[in-house]
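The protein record passed on below.

***
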Amino acid sequence: MPTLDRVPGRLDPIGATAAWSLAPFTGGLAVAYAIVQSVVHASEVIHPEMAALAVGALCGAAMVLAIAAHPSIARLDRTVAIAVVATAVLAALLSAASTWGHNRLVQDDWGQIGVGLLIFGMLWLRPPLELLVMGVSSALIVGVIAADQAGSLHIVNTPWVYLVVAATPVLVFAAAAATCGAVISRFASEWSFTARAGMRVLGPEFRRFEEAEVHRAQLAELRELTLPLLASVAARGRVTEGDIEAAARAAAWLRERALQQAETTWLDRLALETGMRDGRIDDPARLALHLPAQERAVVSACLMELVRLGLIDPSNTAISVSRTPTAESSERARFDLHVDGVTEWRRARRAIRPFFSILRSLSGDVTSTKVGTTMTVRFGFEAA
């Protein structure tokens, strides 16, 4: 069961970005349900200030969840997740206190529905096992609250029945969220494993194809340099000092070109494709070679999209990669993308928002800043 402790959004960041509206939808639905139930059963409320405070607490928890799920943030750590659920449980407690002694039916209470909906809204953001733990804990608390009201409820029954009735919605939503998250994580993991296996199988073939392409390119350059020289030698019928010097120059140029091709990195190819000026990539330790393939794809796609939309000038773009030792790891590296002359800041932020969401899911520490017309995008990765 390895997928129970994996965050679905990190295994499938593109899917998490596409489905981010689930969190604000469930949060809004919980708040709307709480307001409707409070108005419909207003006659049972004896402490209106507590009822209003309960709805406000639930609204605050829903807002935090919606903000954390947004593609420009896409981060919800364990502490914040527990705080969101705890606030929802507090709202359920306040709601019960506002009708204490006058509540007629447990099934009309909105507290357990609100807690369950907020847990379900974390489907992409937290591991399934964590959702289950929070669901069981919350269900136990709201169940105990309902059981304590046994003496004043309209339907007379044992406290255990009220506990089960109140706890069931929370457990159902938590189980549904955990199940969906586990299924997403499982399929994402299987797809990733299959993709990597396919890449390993096709790797030798791709390398042979690349070597053949490089060989053809080198032969074309060799023919371009040597054929005129050999033709002139054949026409004269003898080799001169100038021919020897020309052959030496051609050999030196070909050797330099071979070394350049061997040292070319994915950053160099990205600079060539986007039109960046020479010397705008600063990676003396060649740390970018350790950047995982997913982050490489996101960075490349983001930069090429900004160039395609005309939001940045590639000639004013620079990339630097440096090692930044931290207390946790001395192998942490920092990737910086600097762009000068950004005038349409809002359009640029809107264009890179989905890429940021994916990068944040992968690396966890993506930031973007703007000073004047200079935009800087920064994130970290393990360079080991």
The two ends are 29 Å apart (CA to CA). The longest helix spans residues 159-236. The chain has a mean pLDDT of 80.
